[in-house]
Specification:
This protein has 98 residues and is of the alpha+beta class. It has 2 domains: 40 residues; 56 residues, no CATH class. It is 45% helix and 15% strand. The strands form 2 sheets. A two-stranded antiparallel sheet has the order 1-2. A two-stranded parallel ribbon has the order 3-4.
């Protein structure tokens, strides 16, 4: 019984080490992928593209429910989930930290 418990603890510690390593390496991998994708793009339009908030204005105090209006220049908006073979097309993601 002691041997089984020891092996279970040993394997779980290896599993947790793998989880921690994956969590710390993931941002670097994502950064590397983003740099590679940007390096592959040589379109001047991409360099001049920008995404911005129209509403609410920067520094505005907002109620619990509000609408967000975003703008984009130098790119084309496409619906999320639509596959497009155009590096100048995409969609917005908005993440709110409560």
């Amino acid at each position: 019984m002691t041997r089984i418990l020891f092996l279970a603890l040993l394997f779980s510690s290896y599993a947790m080490a793998g989880v921690e390593m994956a969590q710390t390496e993931m941002p670097e991998t994502a950064k590397s992928k983003a740099h590679q994708e940007n390096a592959d793009v040589s379109h001047g339009a991409i360099k001049m593209a920008r995404v911005f908030f129209v509403e609410p204005l920067d520094g505005a105090t907002v109620p619990g429910t509000f609408k967000v209006k975003m703008g984009v220049e130098g790119m084309t908006l496409t619906p999320a989930g639509k596959k497009v073979n155009d590096v100048t097309a995409g969609h917005h993601h908005l993440i709110v930290d409560g």
